[in-house]
Design goal:
Rossmann fold, 10 helices, 23% strand, globular
Length: 264
Amino acid sequence: MLFLENISKTFNPGTPNEYKVFDGLSLEVKEGDFITVIGSNGAGKSTLLNIIAGVFPVDSGKIQLDGENITNLPEHRRAAFIGRVFQDPMLGTCPSMTVEENLSLAYSRCRNISLRWGITAKNRQIFRNYLARISLGLEDRLTEKVRSLSGGQRQALTLIMATMKKPRILLLDEHTGALDPKTAMVVNDLTQRIVKEEKITTIMVTHNLEDAIRMGNRLLMMHHGKIVLDIRGKEKASMTIERLLKKFEEVQGEKFAEDRIMLA
């Protein structure tokens, strides 16, 4: 359902800071895939998500979603069918607005916006039901400012907002990277539940090898702007961190060395 064909991307071309991230990258994502993406610093993981979301235009190549060419579609147009959750819990919500006001904005996505009051009794009950699913008590804090929430609560809220109106594809950019291990596990479990229940095609960048192996049905390892491993099916189900690192070494002829990932 998502196809990237021969994507090339260079930042600061023609300058001393020129940096080529991708040179002919291709990727096919099937309907319902939950892909985890791992790789060293500078491998192109976040750039991949930003290219799919339309944040960065490509130098050459083509991006198709459901058979439609979206290569030149601007970011704000793609936002109507692409959900995103970032590493920083501050980025996905408006802290000066209440929980229900944030949810109302997300619920109104893809609709014509008017000056009418957006939070009806019916919508408030819908929001309460959504929040009750995540067992963090947010259903009883609808009128509180988002700034009062913890990082984990805010990230869970962002995830709900990104998936309320089922997106064609969900992009998660290290969305638990700024959370403590216990909270990260809660948000990851919520992620798996929502993705499974709503059958949302998902690409998740992570620095945690254990999460990359445990979550999803397909694992990509990137290195220097290339996809060097694409693990799925029975192979992924039986994968371990040791096997993954050994497989990388066999393919690349070098040991995987990235402190942040190895220490996670």
